[in-house]
Fold this sequence. Notes:
The complex is a heterodimer of chains A (247) and B (349). Chain A is of the alpha/beta class and 247 residues long. Chain A has one domain (26-246): Rossmann fold, CATH 3.40.50. Chain A contains 8 helices and 9 strands. Chain A has helices at residues 26-40, 74-84, 96-102, 104-112, 163-168, 184-202, 218-221, 225-239, and strands at residues 46-50, 65-68, 89-95, 118-123, 126-127, 133-134, 173-180, 208-214, 243-246. In chain A, the strands form 2 sheets. In chain A, strands 2-1-3-4-8-7-9 form a 7-stranded mixed beta sheet, sandwiched between helices. In chain A, strands 5-6 form a two-stranded antiparallel ribbon. Chain A is globular. Chain B has 349 residues and is of the alpha/beta class. Chain B is globular, with a radius of gyration of 21 Å. Chain B has helices spanning 3-13, 28-40, 51-63, 74-89, 116-120, 138-155, 165-169, 211-229, 249-264, 282-290, 305-313, 332-340; strands spanning 18-21, 44-47, 68-72, 94-100, 131-133, 158-164, 201-202, 233-236, 243-246, 269-274, 276-278, 294-299, 319-323. In chain B, the strands form 2 sheets. A 7-stranded mixed beta sheet of chain B has the order 2-1-3-4-6-5-11, sandwiched between helices. The longest helix of chain B has 19 residues, at 211-229. Chain B has 12 helices and 13 strands. In chain B, helix 1 (3-13) runs parallel beside helix 6 and helix 10 (282-290) packs across helix 11 (305-313). Chain B has 2 domains: 3-229, Rossmann fold, CATH 3.40.50.970; 233-340, Rossmann fold, CATH 3.40.50.920. The interface between A and B is large, with 35 and 39 residues. Strand 2 of chain A pairs parallel with strand 7 (201-202) of chain B, so a sheet runs across the interface.
Amino acid sequence: MSMKTVFKRTPTLKDYPTHYCPGCGHGIAHRLIAEVIDELGIHGRTIGIAPVGCSVLAYDYFDVDMVEVAHGRAPAVATGMKRTNPDKIIFSYQGDGDLAAIGTGEIIHAAHRAEQITVIFINNAIFGMTGGQMAPTTVLGQVTATTQNGRNANKGQGYPLQVSEILALLPGAIYVERCSVYNPAQIRKTKKAIRHAFELQVDGAAGLSLVEVLSPCPTYWRMTPSKAMKWIEKDMTKVFPLGRFKG
Amino acid sequence: MCGNEALAEAAIIAGVDAYFGYPITPQNEVTAYMSKRMPEEDRVFIQCESELAAVNMVYGAAATGKRAMTSSSSPGISLMQEGISYLSGAELPAVIVNVMRGGPGLGNIAPSQGDYFQSTRGGGHGDYRTIVLAPSSVQELVDIMPLAFDLADEYRMAVIVLADGILGQMMEPVVLGKKLQRKLPPKDWALTGADNREQNIVRSLWLKEGALEELNYKLQRKYRRVEKKEVLCEEHEVDDADIIVVAYGVAARIARSAVTKARQEGIKVGLIRPITLWPFPSDQISKIADEWRIFLTVEMSCGQMVEDVKLAVAGKAPVVFYGRPGGGVPTLDQILENIKQLTIPAKSG
């Protein structure tokens, strides 16, 4: 009986053992980006930017030229790269601590200047690498290492920050969509969004494209992987509604 | 041209591909000049949202192998320290001009040399060095820019050009056009797209046991090479001098006039002017200290370089200090008075 290969690693994804926790969403997001890079045939001219956070080692997985940058500064680094190399495809991969806390200034201003870069924003509502502290995107009531009784806006802990909605207000952000990976249908939608975000850059569209991905962190949500997916669908999307905000 | 404009044009001649800046006095002429000239040359100019962004844009452009620079003044340079540490860890070439002003804090906008420690000790976190070049005239500022870019590329290091408010604002005639011809190593590490080659990675995180220690030893070996090969310093009337004034930048210009006047009055005094503050001309100073003399360090600070002078002299001779901080500029007469106050003991032997 002959065997037929029906599923394989996409070339831009390296054959490398994962360091992510079981049930983590980074692996899915990595694969979707790698597939898009291969489908668009831009592997040889793509430069990726790894953030500070769980995905700091993204260059262990993506087989493209990559740079690791200071916490939150990816959009500024991307700006320096794209302006001096307009023929290259520049993407940053950032978590919510990176993009929505320490790097708020950089993402707002990169969008404000209409930088022609692609940003993949992984929102898992928590600081993963440092041990599950509150992120700006942590939802109200969510228990974290630094909101042990649940996030409470009345106790000075703030409200969940809706970055995509804010960025969509800026003329320089030409495409902003929030997706998720909680089921296969959503994963396919996310891939379409990522593909569109890259295509805009390939076509030289005049502005920044960002795809926010609601992604599970079972470890610090203290949930099983399947429960984490359900939590995104039932709870997280209430605070962070899915959809296209711009473009 | 004023110093700020002259250094900007010199950077363009030296082949800077991208300039990233944020307004701060007293270096605003650099940003304004670049905003006009860089687009004319079809190169990149960005007025950034902060010095943090500026230094990280430099990081991004440098990672792709481009010649990138930023300029700022003291408080802005403090903000850039995170980026300078990352540039150093990732071994990226960059040129950073600091037109120093008075500090600490917001300080004032008067000229100062208060950032000597910050520049020569690394400034950010971790065990690293930056090359620090300290010109004392607008012409030297112009001549130092191509050297700064070449040193950055040759050693894959951040190079600080340390000027001050006087040098930035001062107008002097200059001859432009000097280019260096160093043979530079190819930038095969640069991120240009992994097209038919292995992936390149620019990083400063090394988690594997011993890996970061090894990186640090590698950096230190590089720094020793820089110390051996790249020291620049000017000696003036040193040979027969009983008193050696050590000063850099604008302070050295005033000190030089004081030396001339003291000589006219029969005092045997000379001047050592470090042009590279790191690597510091320790060997040169140590050699001069072998013959017994008095060292007078003059700075526009409360005494920072004087520590390096003391380390170089290593107890072989007395080292005294005169300086004015916070925007105060030592006058010729003040330096002369300090020279005259020194008692020269009879030489032994």
